[in-house]
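Extended Data, record Disease resistance R13L4/SHOC-2-like LRR domain-containing protein
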Amino acid sequence: MSKNFSDCEAEQEKEVKLCTKPFEPMKSLRLLQINHVNLEGKFELVPAKLKWLQWKGCPLEALPSDFCPQELAVLDLSESRIKRVWGQRWRGGYKLGIGQMAERLLVMNLHGCCNLTVTPDLSGSRVLEKLILERCTGLLEIHKSIRDVHSLLHLNLKDCSNIMEFLDDISGLRRLENLILSGCSKLKELPKDLGSMESLRELLVDGTSIVKLPDSISCLKKLERLGLNDCLSLQNLPISIGKLGSLRELSLNGSALEELPDSIVSLKDLEILSFMRCGSLDVIPDSIGELESLLELLLDGCPIKELASYHWYIIPSEELIKLPDQIGTLKMLEKLEMRNCEMLRFLPDSIGNMLSLTTFILENAIIEELPESIGLLGKLEIFSVNDCKQLSRLPASFGKLKCLRQFLMVGSGVTELPGEFGMLSNLKELKMGKNPYLERLQNMGEHSGLTVLCAEENPKHTVSPTSLSSLSLLQILVAHSCKISGIIPDEFEKLSSLETLELGHNNFCSLPSSLRGLSILKKLSLPNCIELKSLPPLPSSLTHVDVSNCTALEIISDLSNLENLQELRLMNCKQVMDIPGLDCLKSLKRLYMIGCNACYSVINRRLVKVTLKHIRNLSVPGSEIPDWCIQEVPSFSSRKNHDIKGVIICVVISLDQQKQDDFRDRVPAIVDIQAKILRENNPIFTTTLYLLGVPKTHEDQFYLCRYLNFNPLVFMLKDGDKIQVTMRNSPRFSGLELKKYGIHLVFEGDDDTDDDEEESLDETQQSISEKLAKFFSSLCSSDSGSCEDKNVTPEH
């Protein structure tokens, strides 16, 4: 039987009072959780057979002397006010009951007990295996009785920042397997007889002030993990470290290490070796290649200029110029990462001998070509050459990488793909081209673009679509700013596994009708394709479609089959006259259409209840807001039996196109409108409305944001609070004007109506989606000239 009193109510109140009397008849109680509870009464009434007590946030300074469940195995008093665990002391030792309780304890958790100044006297402990004292920041002393707890397996003193000395005699801790002293920043030395912990498997002393490791460390024959990160006073390792025959991980990140002892090559089981941010370490011995089990070598931030290297990360510094030929001897290497190697010019041919390599990350280097031997990496699964701007081609052997699943070359200088590229039969993700937003921020000049999937006249820069269409397992294809132009041929439909297709910032004028055959495509992203004139029928599997800023787009095929579509972006598609099927998109959550002035009146009639049922964000041309919105909530008032479920905010803004600024070209949204909760006229929460789409017209634009009950703008509301909508004090956008705004509160039951006859109901009884639909239809219901009446002029 178990009893839990640490429910949500207790958490909210932080401290609940309970009496011990109700526990008296609970003879079978074994597990008791009373977190943040103030227990009052006679503690002897707590069942004697209790095995597990969790009392986080215990308000007592010590456990009462009459509390003595004799079979207690787990005691969790973490984050408590405890100053000492055991209470009344009798001459000759603790009171009998207390001694019996300590005798059977297996686990004691005092994590975060900041008032504890000395560890408990564990003289009576016989079977204690785990003692957690992490983050006991007030702890000054480790009681000497710990050294005699022969059963102890795990001792955690992490972040006990005031501990200055560890035990001077640890000969009794022969069974200890885990010793964690990380964050004991005042600890300057480890016990000289450290080697007597013959069962130790993990020793973590990260962030301590130790100057050296004792020579006896060589006796830790079972040690598998040694953590010495951020030991700023540790400059050398003892020669005896080479005798740690079981060591698998050695980490000295951020330490003051100046050199490695030659004996390190004796660590034949070592798999992970990490020296990141070791600013004084400038030489790695060539003999490190003898570490036959090494899988990971991490060297980020080390001033090393030449090295023989290993798995997981080689992340050398910016000064790395070359890799030695010996790198090919690392037969066990599985992962090689080299980021920001801005001086690395070439790779040795021997890299093809790294037959176990599965991941190769080479980013922001100045290499001009890859060696032909790259094709020998038969196990390679992930390969990235992102931002290698000087890399102009891929070797023909690239097609031999049969296991390659992910290939990334965004920001590279590659202008053509080899014909053998289509042989990558297991490729699932391909990302290439440029990052147009990053390029704009850096004000970079144009590069010669990758001409993939295009039909240009110059065959030298043309890659046959056949080489990609054979990639039947490809799931993600990203090719931004690749100067893809002309007409994309129908071979495209053979990419039957495609789920994401992103071809933004290209120059093609149409998409193949076979696009509809991509039956599992979920995301289609084509922003800023300024020559795209029509959108063909789309697959019904789509959830996201983005054709924003496609300024030549005129025709969109019927979308009524897209029942799963959640997001549709059409910002600044000023030539679009209609969106057939919009009124059938029953899963739509986000619709962005600012700047689509040509289809203003048609779209307003297509924004029906079905479309608006789940809408969270909406933007369209318009200069009005619903009359059921109010400019300010002067004093929030909760409703009995009807919880607040949401807040709707509507705004109308305009952006003066004559007042140009750099900011509008760098961000995709208006970020100058804010909503605030004020309590007693003091702001307690402020959020910026994410108004996606920056208008390219001076005409008014309408935005709607609906915040649900998990948003702070909703769940933080209390009676008497005020909600305001304002513009940022120093707007980022020049010429931005907040013309109108309104707020509407959504309570439980306000949007639950599914009645088809809802239109005839009184407005106060209508759902939010029905009221929105009536609002939009009213804008253009009078006559065909209603757009002019509303001061919105279509732009052609």
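Summary. The CA atoms of residues 78 and 111 lie 4 Å apart.
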